[in-house]
Design a protein that fits this description.
Helix 2 crosses helix 3. The longest helix has 15 residues. By secondary structure, this protein is an alpha+beta fold. The mean pLDDT is about 75. About 20% of the residues lie in helices and about 30% in strands. A hairpin with a 3-residue loop joins strand 2 and strand 3.
């Protein structure tokens, strides 16, 4: 984390909807879409990360009309100069714990178990974190990150 950068995450919830499901016919689905805002006081900029292009267009139109400011699309240039393998390694237990921050819970959208099930890990009471469990699951071939969207949620104390 850089000094002078504040990050805010909004979860836009959509109304529940009944969707067809291959195993039980139908299911009730609660969709959401995250919007990440990063305010950088040193560069005097606001970064917005949105997966949904229509939300991105709506935010751009709103800032233009309401604030008299225009958003410029950065594309993939927001995150640069990193190795994807290093990010995967860090999230799957390879991070340095000397800084005092540790993952205490993480939920993956799918695993490499036989049915590609969702997988959630949570530290037991009074333990430091789940770093060793993540490393073991990675070494067993059960977990692998193809992108950060494979992570549904995480918790850092």
């Amino acid at each position: 984390m850089q000094v002078g950068v504040s990050i805010f995450v909004l979860h836009r919830h959509y109304p529940p909807a009944v969707r067809s499901d291959y195993s039980s016919g139908f299911r009730l689905q609660f969709d959401y879409s995250p919007i990440v805002f990063a305010l950088d006081i040193h560069r005097k900029s606001l970064l917005v990360k949105v997966a949904n292009r229509s939300i991105s267009n709506l935010l751009s139109d709103w800032t233009g009309e309401s604030l008299g400011r225009e958003f410029h699309r950065a594309g993939g240039a927001i995150f640069c100069d990193y190795q994807p393998q290093s990010v995967e390694e860090a999230f799957l237990g390879g991070y340095d714990e000397s800084h005092g921050i540790d993952l205490t819970a993480i939920e993956f959208r799918h695993s490499f178990a036989p049915n590609h099930s969702r997988l959630a890990l949570s530290a037991i009471a009074y333990s430091r974190g789940i770093r060793e469990d993540l490393a073991w699951l990675k070494n067993q071939g059960i977990l692998r990150l193809r992108s950060l969207t494979d992570i549904a949620s995480l918790k850092i104390p």
